[in-house]
Amino acid sequence: MIVREIMSLRISLILTSLILTSVSLSAEEFAVATFTRGKVSFLSSTDSSKLWKTLKVNDILKPGDRIKTGNGSKVDFLYQETEIRIQPNTDFTLKEWNSENKVAKAYVEKGAAWFRVSNFKKGSFEVSTPTTTAGVRGTAFGVFYEEKEKKGYTCVCEGLVNINGSEFAKGSGGALKMGATEIEKNDYKDIITKEGATIKFREKRKEMPMLSRCLPCHKPVGWEDSSFTPDETYGKK
Questions:
Q1: Cα(42)–Cα(44) distance, rounded to whole angstroms?
Q2: How far is CA 129 from its chain centroid?
Q3: Rounded to a whole number, what is the distance in angstroms from the first to the last CA of the chain?
Q4: What is the mean pLDDT of each run of 10 residues along the chain (237 residues)?
Q5: I want to staple 162 with a disulfide (CB 3.0 to 4.6 A). Which of 134, 135, 203, 214 is the partner?
């Protein structure tokens, strides 16, 4: 009896160790959810049931996985020093992820996502929308797609980003509407500063409603707006 109990305990410890090792290896190889708010739905590429489930902290983002966020919802993923922040009302898919070769491809079907990339200098990190593709190796940038406008936007927060073949530097960005051939160039330097979104931002938003998606991370300075939920993890890891 005692021998059986000891053997059973040993087996349990071995299985637990294997599970923890598997989780640890996955965490080293893939991005892991570090924060969620509200309803975040998750469709795993490896789940044969093909059922949407609720995403939780410590869940792993793998190639083929699809994420949907609702009103006021968001999720943050972290892989070493690389951050992926999926904003409210967004449909996001991780198309490709190879941590060994440092290659990643993501797709924003609608909504917005923000990225800080610092582990892909020897590879490539691409984020596409229905109209744009942004390619980087080490930088910070936001990608948006507005369904009503049928228009994709990319804004550069740090470094350089290649958008549909054109280079954009910090404080600038590009946009392309469905069916258009020439990329639209935008300047954000005077409307978003270290302090936040300036009064010029408020005026610019009248012609570019998508700028409202920037407010969770860049609070209004010198004016007020209560239509958004502040991003409590922006600027933190």
A1: 6
A2: 13
A3: 50
A4: 54 44 58 96 92 96 96 95 95 95 96 93 93 92 96 95 95 96 94 94 93 92 90 76
A5: 135
Structure token digits, residue 155: 């804004």
Q: Name the amino acid, one letter, at 149.
A: E
- The DSSP-derived string for the chain is -HHHHHHHHHHHHHHHHHHHHHHHHHHHHSEEEEEEES-EEEE-TT-TT---EE--TTPEE-TT-EEEE-TT-EEEEEETTEEEEE-SS-EEEEEEEETTTTEEEEEEEEEEEEEEE-S-TTSEEEEE-SS-EEEESSEEEEEEEETTTTEEEEEEEESEEEETTEEEETTEEEEEETT--SPEEEE-TTTB-SS-B-HHHHHHTTT-GGGGGGTTTS-BSSS---SS---TTTT--
